[in-house]
Specification:
This protein has helices at residues 2-29, 69-86, 108-117, 133-142, 177-180, 183-193, and strands at 38-40, 46-48, 56-62, 94-100, 126-129, 147-148, 156-157, 161-164, 170-174. By secondary structure, it is of the alpha/beta class.
């Protein structure tokens, strides 16, 4: 009977370990950019994932009418960008992508105001992206980011930002908002990755 408990315990530990590996490492390593999706930058230029220059990228999904974690995360990314500029790596080795998943309301004019508010256009290397719903959805699906409008215009969405290495593989998933987007941790991970 004692052997049976030991075997059961070992199988349980192995199962839990496999589950943790799947959700933290394996699934994350399979996240990638969709090769067929094309988005548009805040300047109206196409942004495709086919021939990207090797850079470390931080990706944030948001919508401009979000009342809390989206603008807070963008604000923290602005502070992080300023710090990376002082290090001389922003734009040349590090790039930020902020992707709106509400293209119906986040028009070019709305995105322009958002970019001005958070000084996204202050320097090269930060792209505010939007596009057709299917292309935004394709990117979100490839990164396991969930969002939906319950009919109120206030989206329910995942709370995740993604750090990709120079080969465009997800190496870390961070939270969003004041409590879950830790600038110091993100900064350290970016500096290690470049």
């Amino acid at each position: 009977m004692k052997k049976l408990y030991i075997i059961f315990t070992l199988l349980l530990v192995a199962g839990i370990g496999s589950g943790i590996y799947y959700f933290t490492e394996y699934r994350q390593s399979k996240m990638e950019f969709p090769k067929d999706a094309v988005l548009q930058t805040q300047w109206g230029d196409p942004y495709t994932y086919r021939h990207l220059t090797p850079k470390v990228r931080l990706i944030e999904f948001m919508y401009t009418q979000c009342p809390d974690i989206c603008p807070n995360t963008t604000f923290q990314m602005k502070q992080l960008r300023d710090r990376l500029e002082k290090e001389g790596v922003f734009g040349s080795k590090v790039e930020f992508l902020t992707v709106s998943f509400d293209p119906d309301r986040d028009t070019k004019e709305v995105l322009d105001r958002y970019a001005q508010t958070f000084e996204i256009n202050k320097s090269k290397g930060w792209y505010l992206l939007s596009g057709e719903k299917k292309d935004v959805q394709s990117l979100a699906d490839h990164l396991n980011f969930q969002y939906r409008d319950p009919g109120t215009g206030q989206f329910v969405h995942s709370s995740a930002t993604y750090l990709l290495d120079a080969n465009n593989r997800v190496i870390e998933v961070f939270g969003m908002g004041e409590k879950d987007f830790n600038q110091k941790k993100v900064y350290k991970k970016i500096m290690r990755a470049i």
